[in-house]
Amino acid sequence: HSFTLLAARSTCLNITWVGGYSYLYEPLWWVGMITMVVGEVANFVAYAFAPAILVTPLGALSIIISAVLAHVMLREKLHIFGILGCVLCVVGSTTIVLHAPQERQIESVTEVWGLATEPAFMCYVGVVLAIVALLVFKFVPLYGQTHVMVYIGVCSLVGSISVMSVKALGIALKLTFSGTNQLIYPQTWAFSMVVISCIITQMNYLNKALDTFNTAVVSPIYYTMFTSLTILASVIMFKDWDRQNPTQIVTEMCGVVTIFSGTFLLHKTKDMADGLLNSSSFRLPTISSARSFKQTDEYSEGVPLRSSDSFRSLH
User: Which residues cross the membrane (predicted)?
Assistant: First the structure.
């Protein structure tokens, strides 16, 4: 996943944005996608043996790897605040690991299906599908190229359902390999179809976001929304918090917030110029430099990679 984001960013830095699916013509994107598939297979195995509330936040470790690879591949400098962000991610991940709930013992995929069809989770799925439909059919055509939250919202909402389905499918395969065949149940194949549909949707809109906006903006926002919604879905479906006391729950949430803080700090500071802090600490900026800094800051906050004029020229 780390390499995929770097590959997408490197691709955007070397081509002019032309919209649609232009990234499909870049070999580096395909290399990143292959590594992402390998990483997702490992994630798949993890979800079969551990609760989603533990596995998903640990994805922050990929952000640390991304910082190191960006330093090597993209020549990005890792400043002191970036190092602090990495440390916060490690501390938060350690906190979650130490206080994570025990994995729920499930004997059959039909038991998972029963959890997925309970009224509480069905209500969650209904709300998610309604919001996704609203975003896709109303907001994507109008604001998809100018507001980063539109694409990321679709990815995160669909992703929370895909993780629950991936976990269900992983449990079914784990039980099958241990001698209890779960492939005979239609629920296993139903979960498989949900996984395929959700992953295709996620990849489509995540790549649109990466193709349109700065990776430094997309990555932390997507990670935060995806992790938060996945934890919410896991708590509703698998009732993870029912097996924990309030102290453990609060500690876990503190760990998650610590990871979020480290993630935003790392991405916010990784493009900082070497002398920016020193120069700004000892002299007031001129009007021209203030305007230049404002324009740069606006660009980094999620302005599309192409200008509005180039957008009009496409039509």
Answer: 53-74, 80-100, 121-143, 149-171, 183-205, 217-238
